[in-house]
Amino acid sequence: MRAKIFYLAFLSISIVSCQQKENLFASLPASQTHVDFTNVAEKHKLFNILYYLYYYNGGGVATGDINNDGLPDIYFAANSKGHNKLYLNKGNFEFEDITAKAGVAGTSDWCTGVTMADVNNDGYLDLYVSAVAGKYDLKGHNELFLNNKNGTFTESAGAYGLDFSGFTTQTAFFDYDHDGDLDCYILNQSHHPHANIADTAHRRSFDSLSGDRFYRNDLIMNGKKGVAHFTDVSKQTGIFQSNLGYGLGIAVADMNNDGWDDIYIGNDFHENDYYYINNGDGTFTESGAQHFKHYSRFSMGNDVADYNNDGQPDVVTVDMLPPDEKVLKTYGSDENPDIYKVKLEINGYQYQYSKNCLQRNNGDGASFSETSLQSGMAATDWSWSPLFADFDNDGKKDLFISSGIVKRPVDLDYIRFASDLKNKGMDKTDKYDEDAINAMPDGSSHPFLFKGDGKLSFRDVSEDWGTAKLKGYFNGAAYADLDADGNPDLIINCLNAPAVILKNNAPKKHTASISFHSDSTNIFGVGAKAYLFTRNGLQYQQLMPTRGFMSSSDLKLNFGLDTLASVDSILVVWPNQRYQLLRNVPVNGRALITFDQKNASGTFDYYSFFPKKQVLFQDITSEVNCNWKHKEDDFVDFNVQYLIPHEQSTRGPKLAVGDVNKDGLDDFYVCGARLQPGALMIQQANGSFAPSDTALFNRYAAWEDLDATFFDANNDGYPDLYVVSGGNEYEDGNALLGDRLFLNDGKGHFNISATALPVIYTNKSTVSIADVDKDGDNDLFVGGLAGSKSYGILQPSYLLLNDGKGNFRKADHNTIALDSTGIVTTSSFADINNDGWADLIVAGEWMPVKIFINNKGKFTASDLNASTGLCQSVYTADVNGDGFTDILAGNWGHNNKFWSGKNGPVKMYVKDFDGNGSIEQVVCYTVNGEEYTFLAKDELERSLPVLKKAYLAYSEVAGKNVQYMFYDLFKGYREYKAETLSSSCFINDGKGNFTRTDLPDEMQFAPVFNFTSVQQNQQTAFMATGNFYGVVPYEGRYDALLPTLATYNKNAARFDHPVSLPAIDGEVRDAKWINTAKGKIMAIARNNKGIVFLKPATE
Q: Of 25, 439, 665, 912, which is most buried by a Cβ count within 10 Å?
């Protein structure tokens, strides 16, 4: 046989109760389990949260079968000497404390993480317990308890070279070099973060206590088993060993599917998380910046698993963002933009935001999209251990997160209190310690449980699944099927309270429990992978017990199969890349399947089983050889208007495409930023582009281009160029806000037309072209954005009518009413009602999608129902092929704090609230009918010091609505709303009615700035592009959106099969097709980056 399979048929028992529904999880009392472990932190002089920042981090828990009887046992680590506990599983949720007999109580003063691993490769699980020592008068070292196979253990860390003494959080064992034994990564933490914000070059320095360690296991040498000993190979492997690393989480997995296990390190505070890619030659390369766009700011525990069943390992990290409105508004986390820049960006750190992060693998680890806000699990308060597991066995992974801290040292009122104590000399004496600690608010929470949908989203089911009413400080956690019923149970190490055993009472479903066995090396198969193929799709797991926070879980893989009684096939890949394939596997309730490595053969080729996805485009940027790069200036909008929702000065670059010299090849103009001229690029015969008329365009470098278009302004048959000016740096009336019309001389060169345009010195955003009056020439719509000091005071937009000779005048109010259209960002002309006249579609921020129907040269305005939003783009096309023009509208999306967990409109109130002559913008979101300010009091009062005078404590207004906070100031304002943030498609029924439908989830990851049509498999697909970085740190920049294509399914009335381009990142502002001698290519313009050129792979 290729695998041993045992079946445990489940017994169906129906219990009818008219009292209450049983929760999925039940917390079992110690009187039943006999697990009476309680972690109480060690106390002594000058040792508390004021001195040791990780004093309340708690301890870990490990589950595993130490006596090979088939039942997982439990080990808890304690923050005090000699109080670690080992419990033997006797069955039926009864455990025996065998700590004393086993000799594993530990001798270190402060134990942290614990891992079960077969370190000496004898077929029995050993215990490795991490410890903090060498400071705060803490003594001890990491301890290795080798299993004697008789219920006792022998401490052997020194003999094996693993008795490291320092600031260890957790340790992971895995075979990084494929030699068959388990190597050792020791994750260490650092101290004094605020005094340690050094340049990232400091990562290459060495710290004896805080620096991580990597030890190679030399049990197997030259293929032969010898005496086990670990050799420190930290330096040669390439890992960082400085005191910049505040390591709290470690996950090991093959992130890029190359067969070699990589390492993800979660770092607290300002340091980036580390992503070490295994090079397969005994070295690692830290590559986080090349694959991840941002991280959790205060990264705690983490986990790696395939949560969306696409066969790719994804990453979750947890942070401290509170879900409760009152706690949230007293939480001091992200700095204002200037301090954030000084602390992080100037020193070379990547972007980090205080929230849980869910990093979706976009395929083979090429890039990751962070979607926690859209996925619904970004805020779980002061969190520690995330664990992916299928708790209800429906075939879709769920998510557990432990949470809670004894005291909240980042409470804003406490920080102010502590500042006063510091002024009294708290730094020089300990007499204020008790007062300071007592002033910290309690941070108790509950364990969170989220049910996964197998795609993108998680729903908080803590109430339904039985953990919402638990209250306390829940730290390290692990899962294991403690009673062998097929349901994964949960074990939590709590601080200052008994450990929690959560029995899983999920209704019985079909499950497959997979374990691994090797006769010679790595006996438990750590690192082995299992792919399950069923008619419902793919499930994938890799055996890595160390996961979560300071903990390790059982060495079995549990697959929930819901109602499926059989598995089509199981593919197992061993760490040495030999593999096994088992077909047509019956399950019949609960199947226990053991794979033996001796039955494996061949060398696994990933792409033979998982062919690469169809390549839609080839990147030909190097062939095109266009070296132009957009260079955003360093203007910061928030320095002028601190409370605006986001920056307006980073909207470029847009592209204009046209054959300016009539050679049959498209040329293009790309918009420049302030102090950077736009560029006219002429296509050469070989497909490259050369700049032209640079002297002309250099004269306008001080202007900021917001949009541009080629059109024949003067009816001479040659395309002229219109360039829109804006950017938010200049006040209204500044000549640098004047648009420009460049006339083509008939040879592809241009001259400025000085008198063709009316004087309009306001901030503008968009231009669209049509012959609106059918007089044979092209007219222009130009959209007004917002004043550089008056965001929220509506600007006019303009319809410019052409006299046929390239001279333009503003259309009057009787032709079209554009005096207060809104904060316009985008526009398009299209014949909406098929009457042969060009209608105008306009959208923007805090306004609806507006349609101006052209009644033979006169326009009538109407708004699409419930369409107010933060729209950034519109695209008109017959999406469903019914002959009527539909509208794609790129909005702010779902992956943001305005949408996540909210159930009402976003509002903005605009007024000079404090009467100082400048207006302020107060943005609010809605929860259950109550409106709360987006920013907390500490940020609002930077522009509104009146709030500081009115409310001395942050807690006075935390959790209160905006009406309460502003009281008598809350009147006489302008009110705006955004009813939907969804990027949408509005389907036209041809009768003047539009039906809105959300675009696919993958198009909701960030604001969409552009749509482009793409011919794909004889269908028209629509590609959405975007991202936006110009926001305050508390909001967090939007960087998850990849260029994503989807086609419209007419029968289902939705978009299907979204496909993304994982290699293109950045803030995409435009994408346009260009005709070349070899066919069409696409140019993708990005803010502050170069242009990417793509060729359809089918051409």
A: 25
Element (H, E) at 3: strand 3-8
pLDDT (0 to 100) of residue 461: 98
Q: What is the DSSP string of 257-287?
A: SSSS-EEEEEE-TTSPPEEEEE-SSS-EEE-
CB atoms within 10 A of CB 245: 27
Q: What is the pLDDT at residue 661? A: 97
Helical (H) or strand (E) element with 326:
helix 325-328
Q: State in Å, rounded, how far the first CA of the chain is from the last one.
A: 49
What distance in Å separates the CA atoms of residue 1072 and residue 1011, rounded to the nearest whole number?
9
Three-point CA angle 117, 127, 558, nearest 5°: 45
Query: For 661-709, what is each residue's pLDDT tens digit?
Result: 999 999 999 999 999 999 999 999 999 999 999 999 999 999 999 999 9
Helices (H), 993-1087: none
Three-class SS state of 951: coil
- 610 CB-contact burial (10 Å; exposed 0-12 / middle 13-18 / buried 19+): middle
What is the pLDDT, as a whole number, of residue 14? 34
pLDDT for 226 equals 66
Contacts of residue 639, Cβ cutoff 8 Å, sequence gap at least 6? 338
| Tokens, residue 32 | 């039943």
Amino acid, res. 835? D
Residues paired with residue 95 on neighbouring β-strands, in sequence order: 89
pLDDT at 223: 59
Contact call for residues 163 and 169 (beta carbons, < 8 A): no
Nearest to 1045 by CA among 1061, 1029, 1068: 1061
CA dihedral 253, 257, 258, 264 (to 10 degrees): -30
- Cα–Cα distance, 461 to 57 (Å, whole number): 25
- Give the DSSP H or E segment for 740: strand 740-744
Distance CA 437, CA 182 (A): 43
**Around Cβ 507, how many Cβ atoms within 10 Å?**
12
The pLDDT, as a whole number, for residue 519 is 85
- Per DSSP, the three-state class of 249 is strand
Strands 489-494 and 500-504: antiparallel
Determine the Cα–Cα distance for residues 76 and 842; give it in Å rounded to an integer.
62
* The predicted structure's pLDDT at residue 977: 98
CA–CA distance, 689 with 680 (Å, rounded to integer): 9
Helices and strands of the chain, counted as H and E runs: 17, 77
Element containing residue 130 per DSSP (H, E)? strand 126-131
Please identify every stretch of the chain with a pLDDT value under 50, giving residue numbers as ranges.
Answer: 1, 11-19, 1099
Query: Cα angle vertex 1032, ends 385, 401, to 5°?
Result: 10
Mean pLDDT of the chain: 95
Name residues whose C-beta falls within 8 Å of residue 1051's C-beta, 6 or more positions apart in sequence: none
CB within 8 A of 952, min separation 6: which ones?
none
What's the gap between Cα 822 and its chain centre?
32
Dihedral sign for Cα 895, 901, 904, 906, please.
negative
In one-letter notation, the amino acid at residue 656 is: A
pLDDT digits (tens, 9 = 90+) for 21-33: 689 999 999 999 9
Pairing of strands 357-361, 302-305: unpaired
Cβ pair 184, 231 in contact under 8 A: no
